[in-house]
Every structure is written in C-alpha cells, then in structure tokens.
Write the structure tokens for this entry.
Amino acid sequence: MLRRIARLTTGRIALGILATVGLLAVFGPVLAPYDPLESGADILASPSWAHLLGTDYLGRDVLSRLLDGSRVSILGAVQVALIALVVGVVPGILSVYLGRPFEWLTLRLADTLVALPFLVFAVAVTALLGNGIPQAMFVVGIMVSPLFYRVARAATLSVARSQYVEAAIIAGASVGWVIRRHVWVKVLPPIAVALANTTGVGFVVVSSLTFLGIGVQPPAPTWGGVLAADLGYLSFQPWAPLVPTALIMATVWACNLLADAIRDVTGEAGRALLNTRTVRAGLSGAGREA
Amino acid sequence: MSPEPVLAVTDLDVHYRRRQGRLHALRGVSLSVAPGETVGVIGETGSGKSTLARAVVGLVRPSAGRITVAGAEVTAFRARQWRALRRRGIVQYVFQDPLRSLDPDLTVEESLAEPLLIQGRPRREAVERVRAYLARVRLDEELLSRLPGELSGGQRQRVTIARALVTEPRVVILDEPVSALDAANRVKALELLTSLRDAGTALVFISHDLGSVAGVADRIAVLYRGEIVEDGPARAVVNTPRHAYTRLLVGSAPTLRSARADRASRRRLRALLRTEEGIRHDV
Amino acid sequence: MALLSLHDVRIHDGVGDRDVVKGVSFALEAGQAVGIVGESGSGKTLTCRAVLGILPPHFTVSGGAISVDGRDVAGLTGRQWTALRGATVSAVFQDPASYLNPSLKVGGQIAEVVRVKKGLSRRDARRRAVELLDALRLRDPAQVYQQYPHELSGGMLQRVLIATAIAADPQVLIADEATTALDVTVQAEILDLLAELRESTGLALVVVSHDLAVVAQLCDEVLVLRDGETVEQGPVERILYEPRHAYTRLLIAEHEQYGLDRVRELAHVA
C-alpha cells in the first residue's frame, strides 16, 4: 500500500511533508536555538539573524517556541487520531458484525456523545483526570469519535452487503477474514480523510482550549498556542501569524493529500464513501462551541 | 441405481417476515441434482429462484424442509458448521455481475487464491493452483496482477468462474452467469461451462430466460411463485410443456424462428394464468 | 416519402477524436419496423440519440444526413427539436424508472405530455392518459394513474413510459433496449404490445437490442452494428438464413447452439 502511494506524485509530496513534520516532532526541541520559555529584552522584535522569526510579546524567540512546541502539537494530533480510531472506528466496523445488542448500544452511545456539550465535558474531564495536553486531546478524541464511528459504520455496511463479501462467505470466510481482507481497505480512505480534517481542527481546538486554561498551560508552547498569542498582537506584527499558520496548514494539507492518495490507490470503492463535508460540519460544530 | 445426489432439497419452505404477515418465498420445493448433471432453474423476478439458490449455500434459513449437500444434512446447521462445510468447497457460486462480485481492491491473483487461503492452504500452493485454473478458463497469466477494473467484462466473468473452480467443487450454482456479457463472451463462457459439465461437475443454472438455459441443461425445473410447477428433461419441458406458465415461458423466449406466430397463444396463456390464480399478475 | 431516413450518418466523439458511428443508413416508412443489433459500445444508442437530437456533449453528427418526415434535421434550433420530439419521433429506453419523476404520480406525468404537446385541457388530458394506460393493457388504468413509480413493477413502468412516449401520437417510436431488463414473459408482452401498436396505428418502429432474436421478432429490416460500423444490413429473413458477416453468424450460432432453437429444432427432427 505504502509503495503504491509513493508511486503517486501527491502521495510522495504528502509523505515528504509528513516525514519532515515527524522529524520536527523528534528533533524540534533539540534544534531550538533558545530556551522557548526565556524572556529576552526585545519584545515583539522583527526577524533578525539573532531571532530568525522575531520575538513575541514577552520577548521569547518565536522559532524556538515553534520548534519546541512541535512535538507536543504533533503528539496531540496523533493522540486524537488514535483515540478516534479505537473509540470510533473499531466499534463502527464491529457494530455491523457483533449482533443487534452491540449495534444498538454503540449507536445510542454515539448519539449521546454527539449531544454532550463539548465544554462541560472538557471541564469534567479536566476535573477528574487533571489538566494537561493528554487530557485535552482525550476530550477532543472522544468528542470526534461518534463521527468516526458513523463513517466507519457506513463504509462497513456498504461493503458487508456487497457480492464479493458474500462470495467470500460462501467460500467459508469468517467475520475476521472478511474484515481483514475486504472491509478494512474500504473503510480506510474515508477514515483517512476524516483524520486529516480532524488533525487540522485539533490544532485549533487546542489553542481555543488554551484560552480557557484547559490543556496547555500558558508558558508551554504549541503551534496553536503561538498562533493564538500572535493573533493578539496583529497591529504590531501583522505577518507573525503566518508562520504557525503555514506549519499547521502544511501538516493538514499533507494529511489531506495522503488521504487523497490512499483513496486513489484503493480505487473507486472508497471514492463513493467520502463525504468530507459532513466531517467538516461535525468538527466545526465542536470548534465553535469551544 | 442412481448415484446419491450431490445436492438435494426436499419440501423446502422459506418465508420472510413482513410487516403484514409472512411472505412465502418458497413453498414445498423439491429438487435434486445428480453428480455431473446440469439443471436449469427458471423463474421470473419474485419467483423465489434466488432464495432457493441462497438457501442451498446457507445464506437463507429455511422455514421447513430439508437440504442435503453431498450427503450431509445441512438444514439445521449452525454458522460454525456452515463455515466448515463451505471451506471444503463442495458448493460454489457464480454471481450474475462479475464486476460486483470481485473485490475492486484485490488483484485477480488475490481474488482467485482467496477460497484456497480460506481453506488454510499455504500461499505457495494456492498460487500454483490459481495458475493452473487460469489456464483452464483460458486467461493469460499476465492478468494475475491486474485489478478487476482493468479487465474486460468477459475476462472478469472468467475470473469469477475460475474462482468458483479452484476448490474443485462438485456443484456450481450459476446465477444468470452470462446475461451481463456480450454475444462473443456469452458464447465463450457457455463453451467453458459446458466443458465443465463434461468434466463431471454438476451445474445449476439459474435464469429468468428458458431460452438461455434450454440448450445447455439436461433437466429444467420451472419455479413459479415459489413453487416448482414443472421439472423434467430439458427437451420434454421445451417441447411438451404441461403447465400454462411453462408454455408461456417457452412461447416468450426470444428465438430466431417462428416467434411471431405465437402472439395469439401468448395472449391466451396470459389470460389463463391471470384468471387461474385470481391474483395480480400485472407485470 | 420516408418518415425517417438516415443516410450514411457518422457521429464523431470530440474527446476521443474519433468516429464512433461510421455510416449508418436506413429508411423507415409508416407502419414499418427496422431493427438495430449490436453490443454496448457499437454505436446503436448514439445513432438513436442523434435521431432525437439529444447526443451527449462532445458528440456531433459529423457526416451524412438525417431527415424526419422529409425534413433535414441538421439546422434545427432547440425549439424546433422540442416540437419534433414526442410529436413526430419518440423513444423509450432501458431503465424506465430513471425516466419518471419518483415523487409524482405516473398518471400526471403522462397527462403533462398530452397537455403540453396536444394543448388539451387538464380534464381532457387526464382522460386521454387513462385511455393510453388502458390501450397498453394495464389492468385498472384509473388506479395506475394514481400510483407512484415505486409502486409499479418494471414491466408496468415500461408500459407507462411507452404510454408517455406515444401520448402525442408520434409517427416513429424508438425502442432502445426497452425490454432488456425485464423478465422474458414480460419482454414478450411488451414486444407484442409494440407489434399491435404498429398494426393498429401505423406507428413505425426502430427496435434496438443486443439480442438478434428480439429484433427478428418485430422487424422487417435489420442492421447489424459493430464498433460503429454496419457489418450487415438487409431483410430479416435474409439475415437469419443467409448471414454473410462472421459476427452475424456468431449471433445466430449462439441461439442455435445454446438457446431454445437447439432443443426445439432437434425435437422437430426427431
């Protein structure tokens, strides 16, 4: 699969960018030229050789903050994706196969999660589990999981009723075989698109949570946090938000490209299932409430 | 003594639950297929022919009656027992539309090897067998790495036929296997299927068109509203049909010669069937 | 004078930059029936669409001439085409359900054609629609009038569509694979109906099918199309008994070797 993706230009670009982002996550904090928390004398300085991307309102080096924040930001996004996969996608696929009671239960749970107010849930989780990025991302992951549940379930349903699955069953295939061999590949493309979008919204949601003091504690840098801070000083440094924005955009764009590439190499089957619009609508709903 | 049937259905009833009452899909259907025999099951939309086909592979649960496959009584089989039976590959199934019955994301090789891998055979052995069967359905080995979307309609149907053969089944159920193909490929597919019959595999052709089956079947059974109204040697059914519906079927099948003259008799048969049943037969 | 005549019609595919129909000619008088046999992709449907002035985008008639009722259609405006379609040339296609609005009762959809094309009042249009349904042997036409497309079977829908197609009394009806998706008994019923219409009203038919037998049942003249080329053309008897082209022979052999003809003929001999 990876090899087939790499044959596409879009796939190569996406993999390239994501690899770079991955390297940033690993080595970013080491590469940072300054301590990201250390305030300097220059406040809101323009880019110079000393501070390549200038400094923020407390005189901290922006480049260092972005590099240092990359690991937390990316790990956060990955965490959201994993939670969505485990809490959303897996039950979504199994809901088609594990019988009526399980189907009913998961459907009602998904409805309940959709109805749950994001903010109240976020506050409740922080109260229970403490305040930190993993907890905040846990909240986001849980909140988007009904969406993944639905997308996975819809994709599985359409595959489960197809003739080739029936043909496999007539040949004696078990449920596990059918899922591994036929269902998984069809569910992957729409999930990949949903994940790509979630990742993008995830960055923004993290920064909006920062305003409320949930998740990221103010001095600790994240991409979203830097962006939020820059937005407050637009009149002094109108160009400043461009850099964190570009980083977030490049990452999200690469995720989308990768999703497209996955869709392309897995053929028409996935194409029909893609409904990115609902994905976006669902997520922007969560974002707005925050 | 006639050999033990490879597939036998006795007094089979299937009904589906509907909002209002029950829908009888099959009523008291009995049919047996001897080893190497080719049986045509003819019926129109809603006659129950698909239900019958699905019942003998365990996709539909009978309400009453008995089904035996290669001597094993399968009527009361549980899911696990069905799986075990299916893995032996005794009964295989070819769907009408080859494009929909092949996974678009699996290469020809993967699709063909699937029944063998499900049986738990090592991959190498499966691949070797696949190559052997590919030759039997006259497909080129270079097609192995292609996806179904990259094949022609005729090639695709030959792939699904090959997939049904790799487990060396004793009976293959063919659900309108040639109606999605064009003339040249229809002839090729039929040639292939008749060569199978000569090799001793029993075939069950399911079709709405008596004409498309008459030339290949040894025996023809006519399903009409869930019941078998006629069952006999193909030639007898075609030339001396007893039931009015069979007569209508024979009269309606598109043939090259002498079709025009039948118009009056068709009209009479339709009227007869309508009054006889007293139920809506508005098509 | 011929009702419909095609003279060496060629159709060009602007995207693939090639001719997809390479010279089709026939002439059709009132009460006659001509059949076109070919696989999907042979150009038979495009030929029909050219006659109706509804070629898909990028397809153009690049040569030859089509004339309907003695009039060359080459220079027709959109408005003139609309006047011609339904009133002079009409058509039914393979999948009847997709040509009917699922949210409207079928009767209203027939009546609409009558009102627009014949200028009848609402009440008269309704009466005419019920008459048409009756003429197409739908039992209880008044009830069918009130039904929605999903309540009707494929055969009934195709009859409703034929009713719509002949509502404005056209002189030529094109049936493009009109019976392909139906059960054989229903197919025979529809074909019988077309034959009766032809006899009673002098309706000329263009019957398009992949099945030579279907065409042979209804038509006087047959064209065999392959890859856009007319490989054989002639009276139906001549085509059936003295086929010249290998492809026609294949179409016949299929019936003789695997079809009903085989069992039947052998029985007669025996």
